[in-house]
Structure formats: structure tokens, C-alpha cells
Amino acid sequence: MQEPQTELDVTVNGVRHHGRPVPGDMSLVHFLHEDLGLTGTRIGCSIGECRACTVAVRTGPGLPAMTRQACMTSMRHVRGWEVTTVEGLAVNGELHPVQQALLDRDAFQCGYCAAGFAVAGSVVAERAHTAREEGDPLGRDELDDMIATVLGPHVCRCTGYDRYGDAVRAAADGPRTLAAAPGAAQGTDAVPEAPPVTVRTGGRGSAAARPLTPGEAEHLGYTPLFDDPSLELIRLLRDGAEIEHSLLVQYLYAAFSVKVPRFLALAGWPSHRYGGRPLHLMGVAIEEMTHLDIVNSLLAALGAAPHLGRQQFPYEQDIYPFDFTLEPLSLHSLAKYVYVEASPQAVDPEQQQTPEDRAFVTRLYEVLGSGPSPAPRPNQVGSLYRKVSRVLDLLRVREPDRLDYPAWTARLDLLREEGESEHFALFRALFEGTHPTLLGGRDVWNPESPDHPVVPLRLGTGLPPSGEPVPDRAVPVLRHLSNLHYWAVCMLLDRSYRRGGRFHNAARRHMTGPMRALGTALARAGEGVPFDAFVAGYAPGRGDAENLELCRGMLRQIVLEQERCARHLPSDYAHTCAPETLWELSDG
Predict the structure, then answer these.
(1) pLDDT above 90 for 417
(2) Which residues, other chains included, contact 22 with Cβ-Cβ below 8 Å and sequence gap of 6+?
(3) In angstroms, rounded to a whole number, what is the distance separating the alpha carbons of residues 431 and 422?
């Protein structure tokens, strides 16, 4: 299922496109292909690893151009962006110096990846030219490091990477082209970045509290903690953020417990595409990341800080009628996932109409340990969002101009629908053994069965005792590095919520790249990713500049650690991920 429509406002190759809706979860590369007919940006892996789809973007006026993977960038995140594709590099029929250098040096053979290299190279060249014009030219080592960081993650199967690097170096050393810098073609309308949230402090009855009327209380259907709908919304949304974060981590932990390579399709490693009905555990985890995004974006729209905290037992105690902790995939954990994601009707024994559904619900409660009668109280995560929607209705009555209420209602409805329909269907199929990856297996949820799809995992901390170093052994090193990547994901998400989604694809890249590799390697040793909470929080700085620098510090620590423990890292570990993210953060 795709997210509701978002209002288009993006400049591509100097032409502004705005004033019409597009699917919020549509990828930028598909928008370029299907809406604009710009097919020079290639679709390769579609999971952010090959970089064939690289485009240059400015996420705000006056900011330097950056590279982005268009396959991992959703249209809801590009509002106000300026995008340059390979079609926009040449001006008046004259190739960009990077394009010409690629031709002069025969840098490519089949050419499929060349567009991504050319666009990335143009960004490097612009940085070098700007530094020279400002009287602070890049040194040879600095330029080589930048080329390695920006071009290093690109995948080419035909030719040597040296020729690409040589071509970009030559263009960077040469004169600036007559072409405008990426995204700044003549005639482009200035597109401002999304304005900062304005928190209203007066004119809302701040001198005297306004109690709920009997009609308002009846509409809510529960007794709120606060009469002020803004405070009540923030309270509920922070609970929702903790729930979505906890589910994201739980589903990732379950995905890492799947036996590979036999059950790769169940884990979701080969095909963790963005959007669409999730068919595997990584797909569900990615959708939980989207749900976390919706909740935190609404917090930001209300003038509240994003919330990346995580608890095993959220404040809303009616959400979980059982212990819910990190554990490998099993029949028991699947019963919990089914119950948490279901609508109340889907697990109500009195509302089942077919023998199959009645047998399913009976078995569900048997596994949960309660029996079908009396059943655990109906909970479901959706119940929290029904409260959120009703409080949002109340805020709309009191402050009709404060938010785009129809858009937020649609996003909350989507969040609830994806859980109660898509996630429920996936987990029920796994619980009943009817998922395509389990068909043909015998007694699949019996740990003694040869067809059991799960590796038993031990859950331990990745934090060494205070004042002691991380032991130079594979398991402690992999635990520690997976923690660092997890903390980096949370810090990137916090910054992204405050900056219109600017760093979402970087956060997802760490999750589906290095964290996936580390989780799989730990599982081979019977260990789980610890997912320890970072005690300092994910925005520990005094202000925005300090938080940016602390996020960079976390990424630099990852670079240091992966160099220090290189011999312990799995072969599919993405060494370039952290340097690439540092590069993306260089636009401030």
C-alpha cells in the first residue's frame, strides 16, 4: 500500500514541478521515469546499494549539492528540493566536464552505471571548484578522499574504478563549466525549504484553562490526561513513537534470527524495496520505520521535539497484554505479532465466521497461553491511533487553521490500516505456516525440525564494563559495532524529522546495509544484535549545531571502530556507509 498523496514541489533540472499530488511513498527514481520521462537515471538494485540511480540534490537554498540514491528517496521527502539528473548536466549542447572526461578516458563499457558516476562526479567537481574560488583549494589528499567517499560505493561490473576516479579528478582540477551548479539552472523558481514550525504561545486561552465540554468528552470516548488537546496529542504520540520504535527493533531482531541463505526471502535481504505490501520481515521493519516517521512528523508539526525513546512496556498499558521483549522468530513470538497488529475484530472469538478463522483464533490464544475464553482484553496498537485521531478532531474544532488536518488523518489511517491488514496478514501466514517461504516444510515451528527457519539467539549487551575496552574477539566487536550503527540510525532519524526528511535514506542505508551484515554474522555465532539504548539520547546537544556535530562524532567513531576491528568484519559489511553519511551531513 502506498502512502496518501503528497503535494508535489520539486525542481528538476531547473524546471519546477508543483501544485499536483503524487503518492508520498513513490520513489524519486520512478517519478523521474514515469512522470517526467527522464530515464537517464538508472534503476539497478532498487535497494540503495548499486548507486546507478544517483542524482544531485540541494535540500535547501544556498546549500551545497549532495548525492542521493533516487531509489531510496520518497516523494514525501523531496518538497523544496532541487534535483539534477544526468540529463541536466550538459548546457546548450556542451557536455559537463565530468561527462567529457569520462568519454576521453574510456571510463565505462556498457554504460549502465555511468550516469550515476557522472552525477556523483559533478558534485565532487563543484565542491572542488567552489573551494578554489573561495581561496581554500582542496589538497590532493583531500580531493582523493572526497572522490573515494562519493564514488567508492558505486558498483560497476565492466571496468576499473581508477578511470572513473581519474576522470573526476581531471574535471575537478580544470575550470568550472559554464553550466550552472547542479540544481541551479537558469529560470528555476526559488523553492524555499519547509518553514520552521511556529509554536503559538498566545491567543489560545493561555491565561485560563479550557475544560472539555461533555460533548467533547463523549467524542473522545476515554478520559484524557489533559484537557488541552495539544498536550494530550503530544502525550499519545510520544507513546506511539515508543511503540513503533520497539516494533521496529523487535522485527529487525526477528529478521536477523532467520536462517540464511535458505530462508533469505523470509528475512528480506535480496528485496527490501520501499513501499508496497511487505512480504518479509525486513519489509515490515521498513514500514515500522515509516510509521515512526509519521508519528514524529506530527510531533514536529505540533511544535514538539521528535521522540526516539524506546521501552519494552509503553505507557499505554492496554497496548500489550503480555511480555514483549527481543526474541528470535518463533511460534510464540509470531502469536504476539499477530495479536499486536490485528484489529479487535480479527482476534475476537465471537466474530469469526469460518471454521478456518475460528481454528486460527483458538490456536492463537492457546499459543499465547490464555485459551480462547476468557480471551486477553482487545488491545491492538490501532487503539492508540484511534485515540490520536479523535484528539486530532478535537484540536481541529478548537484550532482549525493550525494543521493540514485531512492530510494527517489520512496518514494516521494508513498507519493503522497497514498494521491491521498487511502486517496482520503476513504474520498470520507465518503463524499458520502458509507463507510461500515455509510451504513444503514439515513441522516448521518445531525447533527440532530440519525445516525450522530460525537460529536460536542469545541476547546480551554490547556495552563493555565501565572503563574496560571492547574485547578483541569477533562477537564483542560485532555487538559493539552494531550498537554504534543502531545509535547512528536513531541520531540520523532525529535530525531528519527536524529537517523535512533529509536524512531518511541515510538512516535506512545503515539499517539495511551494515546492521544487516552484522546481525547475520552474529546469528551465525548464535548471538543477537543487542540494540542497547544510548543513555545520552539521540539529540543530546544543547542546540542544532551541537547535535549535528555529535551525530558526526558517532559516525566518525564507526569509521574508527571498523578500521580497528577490520579482521572480524563479515565480507558483506559496507565499509563505505559511514563515510558516505558523513559526506551527506556536510551540508549542515
Answers:
(1) no
(2) 5, 6, 8, 31, 35, 75
(3) 14
Q: What burial letters (b/e) apply to 513-537, b meaning 16+ CB within 10 Å? A: bbbbbbbbbbbeeebbbbbbbbeeb
* 121 residue type, one letter: G
Q: Does an H or E element contain 22, and which?
A: strand 15-23
Give me the phi and psi of 54, to 5 degrees please: -60, 135
- Residue 126 CA to residue 177 CA, distance in Å, equals 9
Alpha helices in 441-543 (DSSP H): 474-498, 504-512, 514-524
Q: Which of 365, 386, 371, 367 lies closest to 319 in space, CA to CA? A: 386
Q: Are 129 and 172 in contact (CB under 8 A)?
A: yes
Tens-place pLDDT, residues 48-65: 889 999 999 998 888 889
| Cβ neighbours, 10 Å, residue 120 | 26
Peptide bond into 374 cis (omega under 30): yes
Within 8 A by CB and 6+ apart from 355, the residues are: none
| Full-model pTM | 0.85
Sheet hosting strand 5-12, strand order edge to edge: 15-23, 5-12, 82-84, 54-58, 66-69
Three-state secondary-structure class, residue 366: helix
